[in-house]
């Protein structure tokens, strides 16, 4: 039996946090972008969705999680009629690996005000086992077409053409060029070089348990979490006093989940993933991702 393989880290857990954000200075480029408001403390957007095949199904408003930790886009099967037989996939998440059946369909995506976002976007139709606050996931197969400026939890700007000097005032972040499906960032922690993912689909950040032991962090609680395959797991959580990407990009007292399941998330022959920057870290920054040339920039929201 043959399988397809997907590397995804989407919809892991939903532990909602209320917080405030400042408004980013637009500098005149907002006229060349589409602004979409987030519908949650996570980067969830509402889009008008309908199949690319003419007269297949009527348009419907659906909510999508923007997930830089998933290499594919997904949609809940209840909203799209399916005609073809499913394919078998193996998914890899923080919960480990599991087999899932997936159908495929091409969809059109518009904003609720009528701007075209995507045509013929391939989606993988699956049975979300739990009641998540969204009907679909937009992974890097969609995100890589655009430049996006995230202001979590307020909203984001989507650019099809790169405005001049958009990254002015931001700090450039190194991204491993050999990893095409995810944003993998080298991070130095305790004089050790580690590799982290930037993951807008994870509400809480993550650190490998061996690093937790090395830092001598004590557990503060336990959390249950799930992914869309329906697995429910429990993890100790920890507080790290400072989690820094660079000297000027440090956030204090960040809550972390921890286990060993992310180490080979990118494959046995790829770099070992030791952590991820989730929404509880990313919300402290404006996040600019130029996917067409794989550039990442961050700017602190603190004055």
Please, could you describe this protein's structure?
There is one protein chain. The protein has helices at 140-143, 209-214, 279-282; strands spanning 4-7, 34-37, 44-51, 60-66, 74-76, 87-93, 96-111, 116-126, 136-138, 147-151, 155-159, 171-173, 184-189, 192-198, 205-207, 219-226, 232-246, 249-257, 275-277, 285-290, 295-300. The protein is mainly beta. The protein is globular. It starts with a strand and ends with a strand.
Structural class: mainly beta
Strand order of the largest sheet: 13-14-19-15-18-17-16
Count of helical regions: 3
Shape: globular
Give a count of the beta strands, DSSP E runs of length 2 or more. 21
Radius of gyration: 19 Å
Largest sheet: 7 strands, mixed
Could you provide a short overview of the structure?
The protein is built from 3 helices and 21 strands.
List keywords for this structure.
disordered N terminus; 303 residues; 21 strands; 6-stranded mixed β-barrel; 3 helices; globular; 7-stranded mixed beta sheet; mainly beta
């Amino acid at each position: 039996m043959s399988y397809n393989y997907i590397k995804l880290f989407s919809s892991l857990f939903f532990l909602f946090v209320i917080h405030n954000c400042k408004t980013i200075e637009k500098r005149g480029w907002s006229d060349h972008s589409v602004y979409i408001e987030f519908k949650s403390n996570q980067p969830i957007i509402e889009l008008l969705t309908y199949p690319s095949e003419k007269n297949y199904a009527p348009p419907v408003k659906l909510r999508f999680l923007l997930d830089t930790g998933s290499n594919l886009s997904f949609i809940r099967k209840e909203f799209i009629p399916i005609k073809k037989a499913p394919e078998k996939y193996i998914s890899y998440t923080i919960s480990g690996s599991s087999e899932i059946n997936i159908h495929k369909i091409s969809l059109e995506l518009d904003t609720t005000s009528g701007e075209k976002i995507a045509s013929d976007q391939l989606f993988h139709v699956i049975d979300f086992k739990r009641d998540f606050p969204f009907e679909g996931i937009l992974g890097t197969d969609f995100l890589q077409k655009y430049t996006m400026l995230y202001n979590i939890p307020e909203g984001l700007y989507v650019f099809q053409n790169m405005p001049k000097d958009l990254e002015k005032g931001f700090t450039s972040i190194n991204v491993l060029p050999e990893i095409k499906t995810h944003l993998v960032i080298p991070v130095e922690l305790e004089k050790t070089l580690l590799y982290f993912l930037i993951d807008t689909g994870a509400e809480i950040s993550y650190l490998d348990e061996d690093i937790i032991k090395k830092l001598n962090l004590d557990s503060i609680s336990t959390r249950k979490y799930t992914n869309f395959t329906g697995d429910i797991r429990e993890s100790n959580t920890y507080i790290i006093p400072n989690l820094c990407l660079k000297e000027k990009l440090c956030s204090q007292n960040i809550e972390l989940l921890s286990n060993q399941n992310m180490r080979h998330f990118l494959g046995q022959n790829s770099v070992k993933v030791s952590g991820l920057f989730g929404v509880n870290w990313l919300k402290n920054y404006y996040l600019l991702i130029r996917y067409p040339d794989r550039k990442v920039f961050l700017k602190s929201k603190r004055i």
